[in-house]
Specification:
The complex is a heterotrimer of chains A (493), B (200) and C (261). Chain A has helices at residues 53-60, 106-117, 121-134, 150-162, 180-197, 233-246, 314-321, 336-339, 351-357, 374-384, 389-402, 418-430, 448-463, 475-480; strands at 13-22, 30-37, 42-46, 70-78, 90-93, 168-172, 200-204, 217-221, 227-231, 269-277, 294-299, 303-307, 329-334, 358-361, 436-440, 467-471, 484-487. Chain A starts with 12 loop residues before the first strand and ends in a 6-residue tail after the last strand. Chain A is globular, with a radius of gyration of 24 Å. With 493 residues, chain A is of the alpha/beta class. Chain A has 14 helices and 17 strands. Chain B has 200 residues and is an all-alpha fold. Chain B has helices spanning 3-15, 19-47, 63-72, 77-92, 98-118, 126-147, 154-183, 193-196. In chain B, helix 5 packs antiparallel against helix 6 (126-147) and helix 6 packs antiparallel against helix 7 (154-183). The longest helix of chain B is centred in the last third of the chain and has 30 residues, at 154-183. Helix content of chain C is 67%, strand content 3%. Chain C is built from 10 helices and 2 strands. A two-stranded antiparallel ribbon of chain C has the order 1-2. In chain C, strand 1 (91-95) and strand 2 (98-101) form a beta hairpin. Chain C is flat and about 65 Å long. Classes of the chains: A alpha/beta (493), B mainly alpha (200), C mainly alpha (261). Chains B and C meet through helix 2, helix 4, helix 5 and helix 7 of B and helix 2, helix 4, helix 5, helix 7 and helix 8 of C.
């Protein structure tokens, strides 16, 4: 059913010469945008990062801020009204699952929007149940939100928006930060919601394939914030496929291809583990059930992928191999070619010794940033090793060039885009030339361009004799590198 | 925008709290609560036998209020952040339990608030921050004496309060000001006036 | 720490009493006992509390875990007073600023008992408080501004994430080669990084809340009613009774002195 007393009428969106400039910036995020979205249309919004897609969605949701947050020009309306007046009739789902959870229990979180709108208590709880059912989140109302997976959290956010009966649904990269299973769950939930409510929808995503069946129109924004293309999905993808792929969109049929290289002739084992058991909370043997004993072999010139469902301990294993977490039982050994004078157990190696032996790249690049410019970030490792300043500078310049970060050498690491941060964090670890590289979900949330850059880099490293270990849920990544797989199936409760 | 409306909207800005102001002030309180808790246990045993100078290390407990005020720049920010930090401490578990910890939050928060208020919420300089930390410290110190060790000599009280004030000025005022200065280039303060100011 | 923010709603009485009542009860005791420092009022209050505390709904393990800090802090407070308490009567030890005397010993005992008497019920009552229920109570019953109360509650959600962040940040320092020396500097760096990450998340959380209509001018409704009924009143009455008995005992025995002797 498309309309009725329990569903809001779908909203229309109009933009005429609309633009926005964030306070303190010189360039306009979006300029002179003319866009019309009819009620009930489902639009997929594509474009390179920096094109202003998030800005547009935030503006439509009425959350961009007031005069002290920036300047606007032109007209933007939702159902003929200023978006700020229409708050509550527009649903917004953002990219980061954790930053959208507002309350500690599922039911309370979904009820939050209704409370803000002044919905009476009885009707409120009926809406909450309805919304949860529609997104397929089958958990009790007092289930702790902390215990939800990424995909579940995004569906929770969707339910929270849905309970407000929005006429317009805005989704800003809702599946970027979740695993493949979660992506499908969210996509199906959105499809169900749109089918049931008939709401207008604008979706920003760079993983196009999954959404082609949900949307009926594609709009492409250029990097300068202007409209580049607008029309039926397959037509637009056919006409602009190459440009979109170059902008980082995963265009079906134009996925990045990585050339495989030959590896080194000798592939000695660098890290081995025997009878390795892990516990969920690092260092505390009391916390949880322990995985069954594992055997691991990491060899030069090879890539080992640690795969498995959420909670199976991929990250824990990666960090243990990286010498950062102590094994619960069993041991991790650095073989002589790797240990080279240090303690053979990575966990007992000194921090400085790890730099040239085992480098670890974290899932969240921000966790690793220690300095205030990209250049210093790259230089930190070599400086800690007391290398000659000339050598340090040379390595830093090389890396800046290789990673395409030349122009950003003096930028603060926290101000970089997601892909740039990822490349910087990898570069900072590579600066000290460790023989083994451990990565935790390296392609998480990355667009096609950064994905390709990373995979190429790893392939190159592998071919010159480094060993690569990656905890990942990206099957394309595993295939592109021809990695051996260590599948963790037992879930660490 | 005409000149008059710009002026009018600037005056409005100072007093009205946006949602982001509320949430970030609260988040600073929560983060500070986490840091306090990590700092707490080493301090206790050693402190008991000192003649009042142990309060030189207590200034960190006042950081939330000063820092939140410097970032959010709204009236009541210091009080609010200290209350939230107190809530976190109480929930996670400390030696005083809920209500008393809130009392500390109120007293210490108001201490800082008074200083910022005297400057009409228009001065966010280092000196103001240090003064706020110092007054906050005196407040906390008085509460400590009254609730915890009211039987001590006047000399002890004097030393304790002076040291607490110094600690507040340094560990809350100076450190808070330095933190804001270091936060600016990271872009974390982009939605705040404190993130865009060049001087101050 | 995971159970901290969302307390389980089990059947035992004291757990589901309105948190506002619990705070009021603890405050009644604290503020009354705060006026005098003497052994009688403190010990009487403490004795009455110890009788009632097992009914607070806390398991023995949880009780000792939660109150551990109190059991440590109280003797330490006493120790401070032993050493620096106002001297009176025979003096036993003098050394620099330290003066142990009869008077200071007496005051120390009173101090120790008073800390226990004030802090134990406060900690125990608060141990079973559910943050959401507290927020509901503060906003609905005490009419504190809803935006601030709920903003704080939402910020509390980030507590678990901050703990995870702290751990990851510490591991990252080891991975970056700076984990060997300079603990104070590392602590400062960690604290700073935590602020950066938290403020960014807080900003995103604020956007999400605004998108759900938070902070607007519409009058809000409350999904979970906060009730203040017979049980809550009873708790406060009991607290008041304990305080009254304690003070009366002290006055009757002539020990009650404003501000301590």
């Amino acid at each position: 059913m498309r309309s009725g007393p329990d569903v809001s009428p779908p909203a229309a969106v109009r933009a005429r010469g609309w633009g926005w400039r964030h306070a303190g910036r010189r360039a306009w995020a979006l300029l002179d945008l003319d866009l019309a979205v009819e009620p009930g249309e489902r639009v997929l919004l594509l474009g390179p990062s920096g094109a202003g897609k998030s800005t547009l969605l935030a503006a439509l949701a009425g959350v961009l801020g007031g005069d002290d947050d920036g300047d606007s020009s032109g007209i933007l309306t939702v159902d003929g009204r200023d978006p700020r007046a229409a708050r509550g009739s527009v649903g917004l789902v953002l990219q980061d699952p954790d930053s959208q959870v507002i309350m500690s229990r599922v039911g309370d979180d979904v009820a939050f929007g209704c409370e803000n709108l002044g919905v009476p208590r009885d009707e409120l709880w009926a809406r909450v149940r309805e919304a949860l059912e529609l997104v397929g989140l089958d958990v009790p109302l007092d289930h702790p939100t902390e215990a939800l997976s990424g995909g579940q959290k995004q569906r929770l956010a969707l339910a929270g928006a849905l309970a407000m009966r929005p006429g317009l649904l805005l989704l800003d990269e809702p599946t970027a930060n979740i695993d493949p299973d979660g992506v499908l769950e969210v996509r199906d939930a959105v499809g169900a919601v749109l089918a049931r409510t008939g709401a207008t929808a604008i979706i920003v995503e760079h993983r196009v394939e999954a959404w082609l069946d949900v949307v009926d129109r594609v709009v492409v924004l250029g990097s300068d914030g202007t409209l580049m293309a607008d029309g039926e999905p397959r037509a637009v993808l056919a006409a602009h496929g190459d440009a979109l792929a170059a902008a980082g969109v995963w265009v079906p049929g134009r996925e990045p291809r990585i050339a495989r290289r030959d590896g080194p002739a000798e592939r000695p084992a660098l890290l081995t583990a025997e009878g390795l058991s892990l516990a969920r909370v690092p260092g505390s043997p009391l916390a949880a059930t322990v995985s069954s004993p594992l055997e691991v072999r990491v060899a030069a010139g090879e890539v080992l992928a640690l795969t498995g469902p959420n909670g199976s301990g991929k990250t824990t294993l990666a960090l243990t191999l990286g010498g950062l977490l102590a094994p619960f039982a069993g041991e991790v050994r650095a073989e002589p070619p790797l240990a080279a004078g240090a303690d053979p157990h990575p966990i007992r190696m000194r921090s400085r010794e790890l730099l040239t032996r085992i480098g670890t790249v974290f899932q969240t690049p921000e966790h690793q940033f220690l300095t205030s410019t990209a250049r210093e970030e790259l230089a930190l490792g070599p400086r800690t090793l007391r290398l000659d300043p000339a050598v340090v500078d040379q390595r830093v310049d090389e890396l800046l060039d290789r990673l395409g970060l030349d122009a950003l050498a003096d930028a603060n690491p926290f101000t970089l885009s997601g892909g740039q941060k990822r490349r910087l964090s990898v570069g900072a670890v590579l600066a000290t030339r460790p023989r083994v590289l451990v990565l935790d979900e390296p392609t998480f949330g990355q667009d096609a361009v950064t994905w390709a850059a990373l995979v190429e880099l790893l392939e190159e490293l592998r071919s010159v004799g480094s060993a690569v270990v990656a905890a990942t849920h990206d099957p394309r990544f595993v295939a592109a590198l021809g990695a051996d797989e260590l599948a963790l199936s037992a879930v660490l409760a | 925008m005409t000149a008059t409306s710009a002026l009018a909207s600037r005056a409005k800005i100072v007093w009205r709290w946006r949602v982001v102001d509320i949430v970030v002030a609260a988040v600073i309180g929560v983060a500070a609560g986490v840091i306090y808790w990590a700092w707490q246990f080493p301090a206790a045993g050693f402190a008991a036998i000192l003649p009042g100078v142990q309060s030189l290390g207590y200034g960190l407990w006042l950081l939330a209020g000063v820092l939140a005020a410097l970032i959010v720049r709204k009236p009541g920010a210091a009080l609010f952040a200290e209350l939230v930090a107190a809530l976190v401490e109480a929930l996670v578990g400390n030696a005083w339990g809920g209500p008393i910890t809130f009392l500390y939050g109120i007293v210490e928060g108001i201490g800082a608030e008074i200083v910022f208020a005297i400057f009409l919420y228009a001065s966010w300089r280092l000196v103001t921050a240090m003064l706020a930390g110092a007054v906050s410290g005196i407040g906390g110190g008085i509460l400590d004496i009254v609730l915890y060790t009211p039987g001590v000599t006047a000399g002890y009280v004097a030393v304790y309060l002076v040291c607490f004030a110094i600690s507040g000025a340094l560990l809350a005022g100076l450190v808070g000001w330095l933190i804001v200065r270091a936060l600016r280039p990271t872009g974390a303060l982009n939605r705040f006036a404190s993130g865009r100011q060049r001087a101050v | 720490m995971t159970a901290v923010v969302a307390a389980r709603r089990s059947g035992l009485g004291a757990i589901s009493i309105n948190p506002v009542a619990k705070i009021a009860a603890a405050l009644v005791i604290a503020l009354t006992l705060a006026f005098s420092l003497d052994v009688v009022s403190a010990s009487v209050a403490l004795a009455l509390e110890l009788v009632l505390l097992p009914f607070a709904g806390l398991s023995w393990g949880a009780f000792w875990r939660r109150t551990a800090a109190v059991w440590i802090a109280a003797p330490l407070a006493g120790l401070t007073v032993v050493l620096y308490g106002r001297p009176s009567g025979q003096v036993f030890v003098t050394w620099w600023f330290v003066q142990v005397s009869e008077g200071s010993l007496h005051l120390a005992l009173a101090t120790l008992l008073r800390v226990l008497a004030i802090a134990l019920p406060a900690v125990v009552l608060f141990a079973t408080v559910d943050a959401t229920a507290l927020a509901d109570g503060l906003a609905q019953l005490l009419h504190l501004p809803a935006r601030f109360v709920l903003g704080a509650l939402a910020a509390l959600r980030l507590l678990g994430l901050m703990r995870d962040d702290w751990r990851a940040l510490a591991l990252a320092r080891r991975a970056r080669g700076v984990g060997d020396r300079g603990r104070l500097r590392r602590f400062a760096g960690l604290a700073f990084a935590l602020f950066v990450l938290s403020i960014r998340r807080g900003t995103a959380l604020a956007t999400a809340m605004e998108a759900r209509g938070f902070g607007g001018s519409t009058a809000r409704s409350w999904a979970r009613p906060s009730r203040f009924g017979a049980r809550e009143v009873l708790l406060i009455v009991v607290a008041g009774a304990i305080a009254a008995v304690a003070v009366t005992a002290a006055v009757v025995t002539g020990q009650w002195v404003l501000g301590g002797r």
